[in-house]
Amino acid sequence: MTGRPLKQIHLAAHFPGVNNTTVWTDPASRSQIEFSSFRHLAETAERGKFDFFFLAEGLRLREVKGRIHDLDVVGRPESITVLNALAAVTERLGLAATVNATFNEPYELARRLASLDHLSEGRAAWNVVTSSDAFTGENFRRGGYLDRADRYTRAAEFVQLAREFWDADGAPVRHSGPQFDVTGTLSLPRPPQGHPVVIQAGDSEEGREFAASAADVIFSRHSTLEAGQAFHHDVKRRLAAYGRKPDELKIMPGVTFVLGDTDAEAQERAAEIRRAQVSPRTAIAHLEQVWGIDLSDHDPDGPLPTADPVPDSELVQGRTRIGDPLEIAARWRATAAEKKLSSRELVIEVTGRQSFIGSARTVAAQLNEHVQSDAADGFILVPHLTPGGLDDFVDQVVPLLQERGVFRTEYTGSTLREHLGLPVPGQR
After folding, report:
1. pLDDT confidence band for 102 (50 / 70 / 90)
2. DSSP code of 316?
3. N or C, which end of the chain has less CB nearby within 10 Å?
4. Is residue 253 within a helix (H) or strand (E), and if so which, with residue range?
5. Sheet containing 316-317: which strands, arranged edge to edge?
6. What are the start-end ranges of the H helices in 70-105?
7. Residue 208 confidence (pLDDT)
8. Does the predicted TM-score (pTM) go above 0.85?
């Protein structure tokens, strides 16, 4: 498309877990916490020669109107624990854990991630997330939280200090900064990768700058090729200020996919899946997250609420409100009016991730177009079924990408850094 050599596509698998992507009512849906589910998806990803397996994490069960959210009743296992177990039943697949930099300590987390990197012989990754949520903070000794403006300040110093511990290789670490004042020695040798791969998922101005300065991979979310290209260009241009090259940071949006024998069949299946993902009750929960008011009596098949949102509402706890509720409501109303959508139809419209829908050949072409046109460097696939939702993709789409010469047919390295084409950091 550009006259340059074909870019190689990077692929990762996201375990669906407790979120609105999962279709719980499908007869093929299985446990979200049994080890057999994690193992099935990880082994499928490794069979498909994926770069890594990705686990999200929630530090507190979400609540709506003081009751635990329906999708959280099964629980949320701790991610590094699960990945340590998966290290024993996989050989090449990277293992990425989401761990919060607001409610953990650098030494303790550096030790846990170094342990995973040693046990897996160089396959560990850390998805750095932050929180400005007082509701989540109630689970921790500090009983508080960071202001939104401070969370990336802490995260940046947290990552820096973790890397100091990984580099020390038995020598004492002495660190004094605004967030941490630490003197100590890591109880393990330097990890096989030097540093476990660092993933970051923020899309704000602060998040983009933090990613450019400290991350190896960005888990992004963009709904169109054009939006992906704009994000890709913006973040890559920031790297030079930190002495980094464009290929030292991989941009991998989280995406869904639906396959069919034909494009028309896939579109029909996709519409059925979205209706199953957004039940009438789920649609109301989404509206309540934005409006901040009890909408139990609202008709999901009717128009959007006429009342204005309550900006500082605590009706929904444990979910991040992205953006100004008044602006979101205005945008949703405009979309609903333009497309003549009911409340539920509007939620289906605006809450879906970037989806690739069609026959296996169509989806392979779509994925390749995004990568070759610099809208992404690869994708973190979020299937709608646990644990078998990746099976058809690996059996049908991966061979087509391999035929195009844009995806590996075998692993050529043993570590996650080698899979991603990332340099091993020098020891400071």
Report:
1. confident
2. E
3. C
4. none
5. 67-68, 63-64, 316-317
6. 79-87
7. 92
8. yes
Tell which residue, 415, 342, 350, 352, has the closest CA to residue 195.
Answer: 415
CA distances from 344 to 23, 98, 348, 351 (A): 16, 31, 6, 11
CA distances from 293 to 61, 235, 308, 311, 334 (A): 20, 37, 9, 10, 20
Is the previous residue joined to 423 through a cis bond, with omega within 30 degrees of 0?
Answer: no
SS3 89: coil
- Which phi-psi region, left, alpha or beta, contains residue 95 (left: φ > 0; alpha: ψ -120 to 50)? beta
Please give the Cα distance from 226 to 375 (Å, whole number): 7
CA dist list (Å): 424 to 189, 240, 382, 414, 420: 16, 19, 28, 13, 11
What b/e sequence results for 88-124 when a residue is b if at least 16 CB atoms lie within 10 Å of its CB, and e otherwise?
eebebbbbbbbbbbbbbebbebbbbbbbbbbbbebbb
396 CB burial (10 A radius; 0-12, 13-18, 19+) = middle
Q: What tens digit of pLDDT does each residue of 28-43 get?
A: 988 888 999 999 999 9
List of E strands, 204-293: 217-218, 250-251, 254-259
For residue 265, what are the contacts with CB-CB under 8 A and spacing of at least 6? none
Q: How far apart are CA 45 and CA 39, in angstroms?
A: 10
SS3 state at 275: helix
- Quote the CA–CA distance of 279 and 123 in Å, as a whole number: 38
Q: How confident is the model at residue 285 (pLDDT cuts 50, 70, 90)?
A: confident
pLDDT the model gives residue 351: 84
pLDDT at 22: 80
Q: Six-digit token pair at 424? A: 């091993």
CB 212 within 8 A of CB 249: yes
CB atoms within 10 A of CB 63: 17
- How many C-beta neighbours within 10 Å does residue 395 have? 14
Q: Output the CA–CA distances (angstroms, integers) from residue 332 to 106, 166, 348, 414, in the order listed.
A: 41, 46, 11, 47
For the chain, give the number of residues.
428
Task: With beta carbons less than 8 A apart as the criterion, state whether 201 and 123 touch.
Answer: no
In sign, the C-alpha dihedral spanning 355, 361, 362, 365 is: positive
